[in-house]
Amino acid sequence: MDIKIIKISDYLYEIPKTDDMLVPGRIYADEETIAPLVKELDRKAGSFTPALLQVANVATLPGIQKASLAMADIHPGYGFAIGGVAAFDMDHGVISVAGVGFDINCGVRVLKTPLVKSEIEGKKEELANQLFRDVPSGVGSTGDLKLNEDEIDELLVKGSSFVVERGFGFPEDLMYTEENGVIKGADPDDVSRRAKERQRKQVGTLGSGNHYLEVQYVDEVFDGQAAQVYGIKKDQILIAIHCGSRALGHQIGTDYLKILEEASRHYGIPIRDRELVCAPIKSTEGRQYLSAVNCGMNAAFANRQMISHLARSSVASVFGINPAEIKLLYDVGHNTCKVETHEVDGVAKKLLVHRKGSTRAFGRGRPEVPEAYRSVGHPLLVGGTMGTASFILRGTELGMKECWGSTIHGAGRAMSRVQSKKQWQGGEIIKDLASKGIVIKSGSRSGVAEEAPGAYKDVFKIVDIMHEAGINRKVALLRPLACVKG
Amino acid sequence: MPYAYREHIADMGIEASAGTLAGAFEAGVEAMLNLMFDLSTIEESLSFPVAATGRDIELLFVEVLNETLSIQGLRGLALKRIKVDSIKTDDDRVALSGIVYGEKFDRQKHVVKTEVKGATYSGLFYNSGEGGTHVLRCVLDV
Question: Is A268 at the interface with chain B, CB within 8 A?
């Protein structure tokens, strides 16, 4: 299928509405980052769908509003491109498994410590070892919190507060978690027994792949006012946690992929490709899937809350500080679909916003933003790579208007895992990063090779595209000191 | 086993081929498990039945892969392979039954690689081409 790309501005490209597309596609990119995406369209059909074609495919889904969007970290996913954002009319729109992904509410949480870089330099190795011991990670890892069936149901409804009530964290943490760490409309009956059973021992586990626990320092502050509001300053030590809903989310995705495949046929939804199976939001299947996603989101919040408790204990024991001194900056997901109110043609309208590898980015004034951050918008937590940098950004009014309050979630992969493993060896990467002062702890050398910093796009460029496009503003640049990977 | 990995920037494409459909399913499952573990570190001391159905062979492939992952996750196993006993077609469904082999997951013993979250409908493909070779493809979320 021919895809035409038009340059709208230096940082925005458009796929015009053609054929069965209901809206145009819009991609945040510059000349350098759009080029490989266009080139990808020339490849022979087969193992995967090019990202720009995925953007166009999403634009054909019923009820889509304004545009099928792709943030600057766009790369091919399944169904939706990673970095894909699409909002649907609640009455006529659809809900899609591919718009959320299997790792429901995968996201980033950042903790603020009272420590500064100079205080931890000599203890980096010790801290990394402690974190690696205390936070279960890797394939097949289990947590200390073992839940029975009733408790799992309670966790799916209560999210983070379920964990905090048991003493793992502080009530204040909830104020600084997206949606206060609990999504309403989560009915555990919409989640299979199998999904719950798989999660019973996985609360408080990091997982593997691109998930991580990272010790970072604030290398540069770009926006002093926002940094002050967020309570971060140069050289401060932060702890970043990147993970999601673990096996529960994976099983919900698996279960509903099958259910929505049947639903797509049953309701006669015109989809270009099976990877876009979906159901009308208002159908029984659609409502049940949304409820299951809400359960998955709550499980992810709870998971990151539990990991926060473990990480706090690790840092506190190594540095002899009180865990209560380690505050939560924010927790925000990037594999989600949520009912949100946005302005469409000047009218406030309820929409179902899918963000697949895209961080919610609400700017100033939105009621969803914690009161303490409302003057600037909530922090957007963007994870880079273990060898480069991560960023804290903030949302803008333009971002609210043009992107439903969404932004990038990371650098975005530039190279496949196969290529990455061919090019690098895990041991060499660990040695190389050690020479740059970055300690890596991982149970899987091949996992480290897959996540080689060189396998990702340049996070500085990706962040700059969104900044220059006016979709968000840079607040602070964070550099890694130690990274625990599954 | 006749399988290969196909380039996918974020996830992992697998392609299995064999002279029989059952063989292609067996190769496909092994391709997935080989992403997760060094299979040479896994013994076959335990076995569990697997049953899956799909509206067509492509959907059945996804079902079998996901069923294998579920069994592994539910029982805390490191699985090594699947032996397909039968693949039957009725009016509108294809059903597969087989047995997966492996053992209890042991962090000290098993060399782990990557976590596979699930099999997707992306890049999904089945063909029984010339010479009777059956080819199955799928993208796994890793």
Answer: no
Both tokens assigned to A31: 């000349």
- So what's the pLDDT on residue A1? 67
Structure token pair of residue A53? 């074609």
CA separation for the pair B96, B84 (Å, rounded): 7
Give me the interface pTM, i.e. the ipTM: 0.92
How far apart are the C-alpha atoms of A223 and A474, rounded to whole Å?
A: 7
- Which of B5, A473, B67, A437 lies closest to B16, judged by CA? B5
Say what angle helices A246-266 and B57-75 make with each other, to 10 degrees: 160
Give pLDDT tens digits for A390-439: 999 999 999 999 999 999 999 988 888 888 888 999 999 999 999 999 99
A242 is catalytic: no
pLDDT in tens, B43-99: 999 999 999 999 999 999 999 999 999 999 999 999 999 999 999 998 889 999 999
Tell me whether residues A78 and B141 touch, CB distance under 8 A.
yes
Q: What are the DSSP calls for A396-427, one per residue?
A: -HHHHHHHSSEE--BS-B-S-HHHHHHH--HH
How far apart, in whole angstroms, are the C-alpha atoms of residue A453 and residue A433? 10
pLDDT in tens, A53-95: 999 999 999 999 999 999 999 999 999 999 999 999 999 999 9
For A478, other C-beta atoms within 10 Å of its C-beta total: 25
How many angstroms separate the CA of residue B60 from the nearest CA in chain A?
10
Domains and their CATH numbers in chain A: 6-414+456-485 (3.90.1860.10)
Run of H or E residues at A112: strand A107-116
> What's the gap in Å between the CA of A380 and the closest CA on chain B?
22
Are B9 and A197 within 8 A, CB to CB? no
Which domains occur in chain B, in start order? 3-141 (3.55.10.10)
